[in-house]
Design goal:
The active site is at 205 (proton acceptor). The chain has a seven-stranded mixed sheet, with helices on both faces. A three-stranded antiparallel sheet has the order 10-11-12. It has twelve helices and twelve strands. The protein is an alpha/beta fold and 403 residues long. The chain has two domains: 33-271, Aspartate Aminotransferase, domain 2; 273-401, Aspartate Aminotransferase, domain 1 (Alpha-Beta Complex), CATH 3.90.1150.10. It is globular, with a radius of gyration of 21 Å. The chain has helices at 28-48, 55-68, 79-89, 107-114, 133-139, 159-169, 221-230, 261-271, 274-292, 325-334, 364-372, 384-398, and strands at 72-76, 97-101, 118-122, 144-147, 172-175, 184-185, 188-189, 196-200, 214-218, 298-300, 318-322, 373-376. The structure holds pyridoxal-5'-phosphate. Pyridoxal-5'-phosphate is lined by residues 78-80, 104-105, 107-108, 150, 176, 178-179, 200, 202, 212, 214.
Length: 403
């Protein structure tokens, strides 16, 4: 079987200079390496004839619980639905406020709205890009019942300070750990520091499926049982596999957010190489950092804040802050290098959340990050030559190189 990158271009590409082309994201090679294993799991799915919420899903849940050390790993169709179901299962009531960092993916805030709550925003710490504990504390009102740390890019939020703050204010912690597979805080996997957390298996994530998929992680039996029911039309009963024993009585309105067995098959196979992929990501990040350290347009390289002592970096995204960010991104695109801006608009400035913005002067750290941040290609399939080409091209831009 021949797998090609979706971003690969045909012949006659006007920008094809003979250099390696660097898609922002590609999983083709990593899929190719595990293809025999994926095929074995897929064949089992097809032969059993159960394509949704079946045995392969149960097998993956058990493997994921082993990998993370979670008491419960509940497979769903995306991290966005995982957040909505987790918030509901953790007891979010209509109108409850949830403190969310102003710099994150939209799902951190939209999940709160869709679960019936109200996001209230707080600033990030400018080095780690995660919820700033002091700003989070300042956002708390008598209606606030939850705080949602988001672990972005390569490391976890400052969980000791956030846990203290949550305890002091009587808040429940729900982690948006969608990006954080493999990250641990004092040995505990991301998502297990409060009531629960989520994982995303969107293809571009560190562990990517062949489409959308996600999971809830929790050590709480009751939350696990409720999430498992909510993902399946509100039906309580054995989590997966044996449908004959699942209650047909509906006590709560659920949704259909089940994981497909095809995705579980892919994820089971890829989970086996996750350690290798994470190690390769770390090598690539180190190579970027070494090469870009003295390039003038780069204002900031990824910094692992001192909490490295308690959390291990997992390089999901390699994010720099750059002067003339948008020109740099266009220059790189002209040289056939894909980039992304994470995140282009801070959440309190998103029209969908305008009614929730209580900030007086905005959130300066989140706004600066959204203005300067640029994510460079980082995936386990990148070659050193491709990384070097990205760095050379950034140097050319910095030195006023011709487009
Ligand atoms: C990717 C991501 C999500 C959403 O995950 P999906 O599986 O695409 O729904 C939520 N929050 C953060 C921080 C993410 O990076």
């Amino acid at each position: 079987m021949q797998l090609t990158s979706s971003t690969e271009r045909g012949h006659g590409d006007p920008f094809d200079t003979g250099h390696p082309r660097v898609p922002f994201f590609s999983q083709a090679a990593s899929f190719e390496r595990v293809w025999p294993e994926i095929q074995r799991h897929l064949t089992e799915v097809v032969e059993r004839g159960k394509y949704s919420h079946g045995h392969k899903v149960a097998e993956f849940e058990s493997a994921l619980a082993d990998f993370t050390g979670a008491r419960h790993a509940i497979a769903v169709n995306s991290a966005t639905d995982a957040l909505i179901l987790l918030l509901r299962a953790a007891g979010l009531r209509p109108g409850d406020e949830v403190v969310v960092p102003a710099m994150s993916f939209v799902a951190s805030a939209s999940s709160v709205v869709l679960a019936g709550g109200r996001p209230v925003f707080a600033d990030i710490d400018p080095v780690g890009y995660a919820l700033d504990p002091a700003s989070a504390a300042a956002a708390v009102t008598p209606r606030t019942r939850f705080v949602m740390p988001v672990h972005l890019f390569w490391q976890m939020a400052e969980m000791d300070a956030l846990t203290d703050m949550a305890a002091e204010k009587g808040l429940t912690i729900v982690e948006d750990s969608a990006e954080a597979i493999g990250m641990r805080w004092n040995g505990k996997h991301a998502g297990l520091l409060g009531a629960g957390g989520v994982l995303s298996f969107f293809p571009a994530k560190t562990l990517g499926a062949l489409g959308d998929a996600g999971a809830v992680l929790t050590d709480d039996d009751e939350i696990a049982e409720t999430v498992a029911a909510l993902r399946h039309h509100g039906r309580f009963g054995p989590t997966v596999g044996d449908f004959r024993r699942i209650s047909t009585e509906t006590t709560v309105s659920g949704v259909n957010s089940k994981m497909d067995d095809i995705q579980a098959a892919v994820l089971l196979a890829k989970l086996g190489r996750l350690g290798t992929d994470i190690a390769r990501r770390a090598e690539i990040a180190a190579r970027y950092t070494e090469r870009l350290a003295h390039v003038p347009v780069i204002r900031r390289l990824p910094t692992v804040v001192p909490r490295e002592a308690t959390t291990n970096p997992v390089h999901y995204v390699y994010l720099v802050e750059a002067d003339h960010r948008d020109e740099l991104a266009r220059f790189l695109a002209r040289h056939d290098i894909g980039t992304e801006t994470y995140y282009p608009i801070p959440l309190h400035r998103q029209p969908a959340f305008a009614e929730f913005d209580r900030s007086v002067r905005g959130f300066p750290h989140a706004e600066a990050a959204c203005r300067y941040a640029l994510a460079l290609p980082l995936h386990a399939d990148l070659t050193d030559d491709q990384v070097d080409y990205v760095c050379e091209t950034i140097e050319a831009f910095a030195h006023g190189g011709a487009a």
